[in-house]
Amino acid sequence: MKIKEISKEILSENSNSIFLSIKWLSIFNDALKCYGIYNNEQKIIGGFTLYNEKKIGLITYYRNPLYSPTINLFFKNKSQNKSKILSENKKLLMTLADFFSHLPYHILSVYLPGQFTDMQPFFWKGFKTIPNYTYIIDLKEDIQVIEKNFSTKRRNDIKKAIHDGVESKISHDHNITKELVLNTFNRKQKSINENIIDKILFNFADNSNSFSFISYQDNKPIAGSFYIYDQQKIYYLLGGYNNNNKHNGAGALSIFNAIKYAKKSGIDKFDFEGSMIPEVEKFFRGFGGNLVPYYSINRAKMPIEIMLKFVKRSMY
């Protein structure tokens, strides 16, 4: 099993993930690297992406592509025997751990999709692996069951929004989405890569891969959420609200309507894309999804690792 750098086109041709579609990959410049995983017969059996950027002009930092939840690793394991399946998965992850070890990084911090839970190969190579969590709703359930799983507060917030005349509608006018998102980030004094946001909303997004739900009150947009999707899963990517005209249930209503829309569209799962920020986690938890772990893999060169322990001790 070998890993080789490949073109965006080849990687996209071999995967059904929206995060490996050529439109998504084209958002990024040459900092995005695409890799194929090949078997001994030189056939591609998997792949992933990495984003390589410079910090302070000197420090080489490998991470997920911006606004991607993971490095989008996929692996076509065609084994039938349980032991053989486990052995092939282990071989893949050992190959990946060895590949990461030889990258010319100062800092490496990447996330694997949730189906990859065997962290032993990375532990053996000296990486620190950290569990992270997302909430995923099974859209194959009846909508009544999905709604019943919401917290009492979440259901009451939605009912109050409807009672107060808040209306949430699907939208492809992403100027509204951008304004709400920037409003939220600026209010919380959080940095955002506006250039990438523009590429996502105005270059990538179209009616076949994404949509927003915007909540209005008195014909004014007060909250919204933006999603991208493929055949298997829909992802909550961005959200925001207008602090001058906010309503506690407006954001929840936009998400609930997106859940119903995705279910009617035949998508299997709704992924909140995770958050380790307590207040955001609490909000997402209120929608009653299944808690699903996924792992980050972290390592930094000395003495950078020593410095990072003071600001991100849980990761390094």
Concise account of the structure shown:
The chain is of the alpha+beta class and 316 residues long. Helix content is 34%, strand content 29%.
When the domains are counted, the total is 2
Number of strands: 13
Shape: globular
What's the alpha carbon Rg, rounded to whole Å?
A: 21 Å
**Under CATH, the topology of the largest domain is which?**
Aminopeptidase
Largest sheet: 13 strands, mixed
Low-confidence stretches: none
- Average pLDDT reading: 93
Strand content: 25-35%
Keywords:
Aminopeptidase; alpha+beta; globular
Structure in words:
- The radius of gyration is 21 Å and the shape is globular.
- The chain is built from eleven helices and 13 strands.
- It has 316 residues and is an alpha+beta fold.
- The longest helix is centred in the first third of the chain and has 20 residues, at 82-101.
- It is 34% helix and 29% strand.
- Strands 1, 2, 3, 4, 5, 6, 7, 8, 9, 10, 11, 12 and 13 form a 13-stranded mixed β-sheet that branches.
- The chain has two domains: 2-131 and 295-311, Aminopeptidase (3-Layer(aba) Sandwich), CATH 3.40.630; 140-267, Gcn5-related N-acetyltransferase (GNAT) (Aminopeptidase), CATH 3.40.630.
- It starts with a strand and ends in a 5-residue tail after the last helix.
